[in-house]
Design goal:
alpha/beta, about 25% helix
Length: about 140
């Protein structure tokens, strides 16, 4: 829920649309995939819709269990959902949130791999095409 508070605060600053709507524990089912998104945020700014999809993990900050780490399956699922939204003309960002103060090296490596996809926004925002990189929230 802390991650949702961060996004809510960000959406209240400088957005001219209706703010954000969110879902927690969204089950997504298509003919080719099935899975859960821990939280999903829909943002409407003027005429430009955007979605943030997230995997959230909690765990011991000193010795996180394997299940408390972002996995390649988690990231592959998020990327597939992201690609589906983008195919519809909707900008979509991946978010990884953890209660730990720092990421473990395997998580960093996975997120770096995702950055190398070199996606650009579906919409040109004020003349800028900024890269669509994963959002990471810690602690």
């Amino acid at each position: 829920m802390a991650a949702l508070s961060v996004f809510h605060a960000a959406c209240g600053k400088g957005f001219t649309g209706t703010g954000m709507t969110y879902l927690v524990g969204a089950e997504l089912v298509t003919s080719t995939m099935e899975g859960e998104i821990d939280f999903m945020i829909m943002i409407q700014d003027a005429e430009l819709p955007a979605v943030v999809i997230s995997e959230a993990k909690a765990g011991n900050p000193d010795r996180p269990a394997q299940s408390a780490l972002l996995s390649s399956d988690d990231l592959a699922h998020l990327e597939a959902v992201q690609d589906s939204f983008r195919a519809l003309g909707i900008d979509c960002w991946i978010c990884f949130a953890t209660t730990r103060p720092a990421l473990e090296q395997p998580e960093i490596d996975l997120l770096r791999r995702s950055c190398k996809r070199s996606l650009t926004p579906v919409f040109d925002f004020q003349g800028s095409l900024l890269p669509v990189l994963p959002i990471v929230l810690t602690d």
